[in-house]
User: Fold this.
Amino acid sequence: MDVATIARLQFATTASIHFLFVALSLGLVVFVIAMETAYVVTGNAVFERMTKFWGRLYVVNYGVGIIGGIVVELQFALNWSNLTKGFGDAFGGALALETLTAFFVESALLGAWIFGWGVLGRKTHLALIWLVGVSAYVSALWILAANAFLQHPVGAPDTTGRYFAGFGTLLRNPNLWDAFLHVVFASLIVGSTFVAGVSAWHILKRTGEAAFFRRSLRMAVAVLPVGTLATVHWGMLQLVVIEDTQPMKLAVLETIGTVETIGTVEMSGTGEYAPPEWIGVAYQVMLRTGFGLVLLSVVLVALLFRDWIVRLRVPLHVLVAAIPIPFAVVVAGWLVREVGRQPWTVYGLLTTEQAVTSMAPGAVLAAFLATAGVMLGLATAGYWLIARFARRGPEDNAFGVPLGQAEPAGPPDTAVI
Amino acid sequence: MDVFWYCLLGALFGVYLTLDGTVLGAGMLLRAGGPGERARRATITSFGPFFLANEVWLVVTVATFLAVLPRLEGPLFRSHYHLVAAVLVLWTVRDAAVWFRSRLERPGWRRGWDRALTGASGAFAVALGLLVGNVVTTTPGSEPVRMPLGWYPLLWALTVTVVLLVHGATFLVVRLPGDLIGGPLRVVRRLAPPAAVLYAVLLGAGLLTGVPSHGTPAVAAEATAMAALAVSARIVAARPRIALALTALAAAAPAVLVGLRLEPAAGRSLAVASALDALGGFLVVVIPLVLAVQVWTWWAFLRRIDSRTPVFF
Assistant:
């Protein structure tokens, strides 16, 4: 294998795993915010228990997400140095602002939220999770601004011949906003399917927390159609932009590789650069599952009437089975967007072959195997823990257990090396 | 104006070393508080609230480096590809150990992750030291370093590891419950003098062998680190917070040498002026805000742990 292939595999593996966790974080934080806000406003202890139960799942998930984020961030400079060399002036600023304005604040405040249970005032604690949530979305916006630049390089070379785009230009990229809203609402689908599915499992198994999970279930099912309809809406709008800016991608998506269409597009001037045809399959999977989820979500909302969703039982089984589906669909979506950009790294300006760092394949392969192996291990362990905590149900020791209770002090003379 | 950007990058890296240095040091010293789960849980809780906020400084350093010096980061990482990749993997293992170890109560699970935490923290410190030593002795953008284990980088690896042990131990003296600080106190007293000696050796070696970038600021940084370590060993019991501020200086000192080494190449690699102006405009607002958030976190949580302190990691 050549260096470019290995480096692409590494990026695809680590970024996909990273995004699985990011999507659930973005979706779940909305519920955690809503629950804690309800708790602080009403003072009802049920909402506190809900916040702690879903909050712990959110935090465990967040941990794997952040580790993946570090791996992805460092890969730009490590494996794609010709990308950063040629276009760092233009999209490096977006990455820097992502970490400075969003990630910086998010990580400091999440630590304070985790350790602030019972230490900080209720309102301060609530403000923390709001800020964590808002900065997570700001973070997603900047990352997508950087990605939108790769899809459609707005800006222009300056007098020295270096490619530059101001922040205003980056944020006005037509490839940004539809994609951002598409990702935001797709994450909401991931989050609400997860909350609904886990709740449905507990109701089916009669784990003794019926009221708790019925409330969570109704909340998630009510939100689900917002996610599905909005995701499809902003997904469709992207086709218009793709037609304008990436005709070859659209040709492959719409026709699964009909020669004539690709021929026509070639004549429109994009050259013979076509993405691989299999992304057409990924696209169809995403599209059809997406429409299926719209239907399902609307039916489920109707079943909230008189609690049929619980009384019929079947919808609960469907919801449990549906938990993994949105995860698969978001990965398909990223494959369409990113592999659909091939063979370009910066569309029309820098090919992927040109972007990669010139290194010995052995070193790149070793780095790939190590990072991808560790990420796969972490993702497995992370999901195993999440499933375990989800099954256990609400527990009082999720957050805010004092050291004296978790680990009572022994006789005083034990503290010696 | 260029100086502002160099200072910003140096400050970001220096603050990273200082802040995450406490976690790396405490990770290596997981067993220093004493035997038993309570001491280990307290050690992890000591850095728990700051853990994410600390490591994020390195992510910010890397991202800002890319924005400010887009034509230097790639070549620099390429020269030190193996070490950077090693740091990345060790970083993920260290983080996984912190996130996962207390999630289950099985003794075997916790023991396994404790070993991973201690091992990865130590190896991380060594790799950071090797990276500093190699960056200081290699021309940025030269061919990949195949053998990063020269005597000078190894000296740095030893120094960084010992200094972070002292720094982490001082942090533990500030944070751990009173009955657990005996071990960390002993570590500071025993290792701070050798750490100061190591900085002296680096200083002498740098001057004698003409290691690049060994100008006045480097000598000043290493001399400051020596003095800070020597003083902190004496005052750590009586004034642990001041001792922590001093060991922080010693932990951050490598940033000065790395910065000086990269400065000539940096001048040729700056991003276009309009890009820097746009970023600068944001930073004037963002930096005070971000600092306020971080300082608030430290103010809210930097007190001695007692039996009522919540645990999580």
In short: The mean pLDDT of chain A is 89. The longest helix of chain A spans residues 3-42.
